[in-house]
What we know:
Layout: E1 35-36, H1 43-53, H2 57-65, H3 70-80, H4 86-96, H5 101-119, H6 129-152, H7 158-170, H8 174-187, H9 192-202, H10 210-223, H11 232-243, H12 249-254, H13 257-269, H14 282-295, H15 299-306, E2 312-313, H16 315-318, H17 326-336
Parallel strand pairs: 1-2
Amino acid sequence: MTTISRHPAAEEQPAGGRRRPAFPLGLWRRRPAPRLVTDFDDPALARLREAIGAGDWPAVRERLAAAADGEELCWLVWHASGTPGTTELMGRVMDREPDGTPALLMAGAHHIDWAWEARTGARASQVSREQFRVFHQRLEVAEDLLYRVAEREPDWVAPWFMLQVSGRGLQVGPQIARLRFEAAVRRCPGHLGAHRQHLQQVCAKWGGSHEEMHDFARESMLSAPEGSPLGELVALAHLEHWLDLEPGEDAEYIGRPDVRARLLEAAHRSIGDPAFGRPRDWIGVHNTFAMALSLAGEKEAAAAAFAPLEGRVTEFPWQYLDSADPVAAFRKWRSRAGR
């Protein structure tokens, strides 16, 4: 499999002043057809979703109990909570065992997903009063459920990670949001999901600023060991900044030499480092870098980010380019990168 070899971000500076890292691409092969991966190619997540779809709560509970650690439990519950059939299943389960901790956690996660389903992804100005009422009502239920889990299982990261999301929707404010993030990372210092959620919390569209967002992303990356997936935060921050700009301004921003240098540095410190390996959400991290580097015009680096994916597409962040068909956006930019 083609990989990215790590080199310092500021390795060589040719004529013209722009730094160009070396990203060896290996042998060229026929490109696998792009395909949307909703389960991140995680067999445990696929089996859990299958059990939810079948309405088999004992199987769901068994699969959750088999999670290797708190981070995996959080990953499984969060990514399975929007599976079709979850509303009906959790309704029955909560009637039968309203105090079961796994049921409380799954129901809390599902109420967050269900709340955003009611709100939709539209801008606040385009969301009706009734949508907001349902949105807040479901988030308040989620908060109650998740706090009950946190009280019972004080070492679990999952409720604190999920309370970050519900809290942002309920606009709990920056101080409480920060406390929830800190509670999550105390239990799991390198938790990528918790860092991603706090990045959203401090971005401009949720009341923060571009400066605060970029500072948080870079500080998190530099505080983590090299090879950590937290380098993705830098790419996410630049994508959020790009998304907030008007057409024309967005392309000018993402193509700026300083932005390109920051993206290359982040790629080298994360997916380009041998220590990166295959963390739980490596597919999502590679998709993020592939899109950010493509938009920045760093074709060689983008091709190296695309290569290990072998056509695996995650809906985020490609829906920023084509909400109806993220696979088409992936295919277009992969071709432009020469992969």
